[in-house]
Design goal:
heterodimer; A: alpha+beta; Thrombin, subunit H; Serine Threonine Protein Phosphatase 5, Tetratricopeptide repeat; six-stranded antiparallel β-barrel; 18 strands; B: alpha+beta; six-stranded antiparallel barrel; 28% helix; globular
């Protein structure tokens, strides 16, 4: 990111000696960061750690890509990195990832941040044990609203040392490290470095708890597993350069207010979600007092102001954030969204088109741009963008969903079937996509297929009265022989907690209609 | 720290300088020639899986859970009585469990054979570098014996093979410990105990010991087995058989008869069992197996005198 923040860091390195500290021996905890990934449906958070010259962060792939629990969906997220050492937060770009290994490398603008060194294959082989060090308490406070353990955001690292069980290699090259047992590792530990004990050399990145079985299914071993850090260099390729994997001679000094600032940033981020924006205002304002030039702070305050009805303030703050970092994809997407919702779609397009063209965060830019173009009824351009975007990100369910919507408008339900089917394949566990497909199939006369999906929805969302209502309605319309079943299904809908979108009266009316169908109007 | 240095030196050798003797090997034994059927017996239950002849032909690698009875969560362990049937020789022998390692999922059996075709072990570096591996087994026989398939197995379809990518090789203390083959689900439970081979050399790297939820299969590397056997006094070291060993006449027919006898007996078809036993006795008059099953079948049919006659001189062992 060629941002104002980067410039500030360079200035610091050149002219402000006291802010630098010798980095010969880096305490591993100084390299720990918190990584959050935000998508259209929620936020995930976990650990990460700074590597090399301070501009690279290693974390888990599953923390920076949204995925389906049972399908192939995979979509970019807006990624933010929080540093308890610097007391700051910044936008991060995924520069390399390996989904199978569950490894991702992010780029951040904090050159000189204390960092760990990656162990090469021989150093990995020499390690007899792995020490996992992370911020599980802070992560759980960040991501789990029901979690009540420990003190919030103390940033005191927790650690667990376990012997190495084995190193998984493929074609002679180490792929991952598995530790013997799991100790206290579990929720809140993903993305933590696995270190050679007593050093700042990272051998792996804790990603999952692996279970190994035996014929007949008897469980034998559980172990903490993570990709080998020796993979990072190959993953980055020649473009990034070996130089960035080496720690600098000097590193940035931790400000006295670092932990306070980081805590405020995390509280603000955690509250930046529909229904909670009001509570983001206080921490983000306090954070901005400590870090007035933070793009993150300006953006979060802008969003919170927007959501709490202070539109002029929001506009000013977005513009300030863009001045600080004109290339910020997060800010441009959120500002464009704001403009689109406030009757300025042309300005929104002006901001998003270059982002879509530039090659950075293209799938995210595509979705935002299609949202804007859709309000302008420029559906032809929408389809052009989406056809290209699904080539870049073919497993992104949102792109297929948008394509289905565009095709529906332009070409009718038959043309929307293919992208809707693709969306259901990618996210079979999400009811709305399957519901959309079932209704499309019904509209196009593929009744048997439609019924299959309406019935499957009862398994997907068993507590949702809407899906029972849909099936009952379908049966009453198309399966006269199943009238009794339709009544039972509708009664089941009535027995479930009601939803705002489906008043009980609607269900009662349906039951009445099924029991007393209107007389036939077919002339004699 | 000393431990790290030691382990380090060993792993470096895995990655670069393992002595790899595979190239000097002239393939003589087909992998299937070294396959055997291991059946364990305990009270009324029988369990069959694959075994693999190694060394001079007197040692069979079997799966630990195939020959020991254990109860989950407890310390009960019972060594079951084991027979080994060879499709190459068409013979059946009693086997003795001479070594075992629950953690490695392996047991080593000793049989009174010499010169049975056996497989040579792959070098550690070949295992570490392998991209793909293959398995050879008799899954249809196992399915038939476990009641999952009733169809007859004929000699031409006795062996199947499958190839899979190597997901990873697990290296412990510098040496390959187990191999995980990539999913697809083709290598499933009926393949338990089959050898995992390096396709280029036909040498055996591991034996299939467990199956993963993603459809992958795991196998224990057999190079470590030598250490297991060396701990047992009186057992010959694991050196490959050098003897010429032509396929025995009627071997496949005799082997398939033993399989059919076990399957028919398991399905309580005693008259048909007795008929098949008579055929086996004709082909292999020196083998106890036909006599023993003929006797038990006769007993089940209430023909006590037939049972007496079927077991001449107390020959044989178990059922």
């Amino acid at each position: 990111m060629k941002s104002g923040r980067s410039c500030a860091v360079v200035t610091v390195l050149l002219f402000v000696g006291p802010l630098l500290a010798a980095s010969q021996e880096v305490a591993p905890e100084a390299a720990l960061v918190i990584v959050t990934g935000r998508s259209y449906v929620g936020e995930v958070g976990g650990n990460g750690f700074v590597l090399g010259d301070g501009t690279l962060v290693v974390t888990c792939d599953h923390l920076v890509f949204e995925k389906s629990a049972s399908g192939g969906h995979r979509a970019d997220m807006l990624v933010t990195v929080f540093s308890p050492y610097l007391g700051d937060a910044c936008e991060a770009q995924v520069v390399a990832s390996d989904e199978e290994l569950d490894l991702a490398v992010l780029e951040i603008p904090w050159k000189g941040h204390p960092a760990l060194s990656p162990a090469d294959a021989n150093a990995l082989a020499a390690a007899g044990a792995g020490r996992v060090i992370g911020l599980p308490m802070a992560i759980r406070h960040m991501t789990d609203p029901d979690f009540a353990g420990g003190e919030a955001e103390t940033f005191e690292p927790d650690q667990e040392e376990l012997p190495i069980s084995f190193i998984g290699i493929r074609r002679g090259a180490p792929r991952f490290v598995q530790l013997e047992g799991v100790g206290r590792l579990g929720p809140g530990w993903s993305g933590s470095p696995m270190l050679v004990p007593g050093t700042s050399v990272a051998i792996g990145c804790f990603a999952a708890i692996d279970k190994r079985g035996f014929v007949g299914g008897k469980m034998m071993e559980r172990g903490a597993k993570g990709p080998a850090l020796s993979q990072v260099s190959g993953l980055l390729g020649e473009g990034i350069g070996e130089g960035r994997l080496r720690r600098p001679d000097v590193c940035l000094k931790s400000p006295d207010d670092a932990r306070e600032a980081c805590s405020l940033a995390l509280r603000a981020s955690r509250s930046s979600w529909p229904g909670r924006y009001e509570s983001a205002l206080e921490p983000v304002r306090a954070f901005l007092k400590l870090r007035p030039d933070s793009v993150f702070g300006q953006r979060v305050l802008a969003r919170a102001s927007e959501e709490t009805g202070q539109k002029d303030a929001a506009r000013e703050l977005y513009q300030r954030a863009l001045e600080l970092d004109p290339n910020s994809a997060h800010t441009r997407i959120l500002y464009a969204q704001f403009l689109g919702e406030n009757s300025e779609p042309n300005e929104a397009r002006r901001i998003l088109e270059p982002l879509w063209q530039s090659g950075r965060s293209r799938p995210l830019a595509a979705i935002a741009l299609v949202n804007i173009l859709g309000t302008q009824k420029d559906l032809g351009r929408c389809l052009e963008i989406l056809e290209e975007a699904v080539k870049i990100s073919p497993r992104n369910v949102y792109l297929w969903q948008q394509m289905a919507g565009c095709r529906m408008e332009l070409q009718g339900p038959q043309a929307a079937l293919e992208p809707t089917t693709r969306a259901v394949e990618l996210c079979p566990e999400r009811g709305p996509f399957r519901g959309g497909l079932a209704q499309l199939l019904e509209r196009t006369g593929a009744l048997d297929e439609a019924e299959k999906h309406f019935r499957k929805l009862l398994e997907v969302e068993p507590q949702n009265p809407v899906v029972y209502y849909w099936l009952a309605e379908f049966l009453s319309k198309h399966r006269p022989q199943s009238r009794e079943e339709a009544v039972k299904v509708a009664e089941k809908a009535l027995s479930l907690p009601s939803r705002a979108s489906l008043p009980r009266e609607e269900i009662e009316k349906l039951i009445k209609r099924i029991r007393d169908p209107a007389p036939s109007t077919v002339p004699e | 720290m000393a431990a790290y240095c030691r382990a380090g030196a060993i792993v470096v050798s895995i990655l670069s300088v393992f002595a790899d003797v595979d190239r000097s090997w002239a393939a003589q034994t087909k992998p299937q020639d070294a396959l055997v059927l291991v059946t364990s017996h305990w009270r009324e239950t029988r369990m069959s899986s694959h075994g693999l002849v190694v060394g001079d032909g007197s040692l069979v690698v079997a799966l630990y859970p195939a020959v020991f009875d254990e109860l989950a969560g407890g310390r009960h362990r019972l060594a079951k009585r084991v027979t080994v049937a060879s499709p190459y020789w068409g013979d059946v022998a009693d086997a003795e469990i001479v070594a075992s390692d629950a953690r490695k999922h392996l047991a080593i059996l000793q049989v009174p054979w010499r010169g049975h075709p056996s497989l040579r072990l792959a070098g550690d570096k070949s295992i570490a570098d392998a991209d793909r591996m293959m398995v050879v087994g008799m899954p249809r026989v196992i399915e038939m014996l476990s009641g999952k398939s009733r169809g007859p197995v004929d000699a031409s379809a006795l062996f199947q093979e499958a190839t899979a990518g190597v997901d990873y090789v697990a290296v412990r203390e510098g040496k390959p410990s187990f191999v995980v083959l990539q999913g697809g689900g083709e290598i499933s439970l009926p393949w338990a105990g089959t050898p995992i081979l390096l396709p280029d050399t036909g040498r055996v790297a591991a034996t299939v010991s467990s199956f993963l939820v993603n459809g992958g299969a795991e196998g224990e590397v057999l190079n470590r087995m030598g250490e297991l056997v060396d701990r047992v006094r009186g057992v010959e070291p694991v050196t490959a058989s050098e003897t010429e060993h032509p396929l025995t006449e009627n071997a496949r027919e005799a082997f398939l008869l033993t399989v059919r006898i076990a399957a028919l007996f398991g399905n309580e078809k005693y008259e048909e069992t007795a008929a098949e036993c008579r055929k086996l006795i004709e082909l292999r008059p020196q083998c106890f197996y036909g006599y023993v099953y003929a006797a038990i079948a006769a007993e089940e049919l209430g023909q006590a005198s037939e049972a007496d006659r079927a077991v001449p001189g107390g020959c044989g062992s178990i059922a």
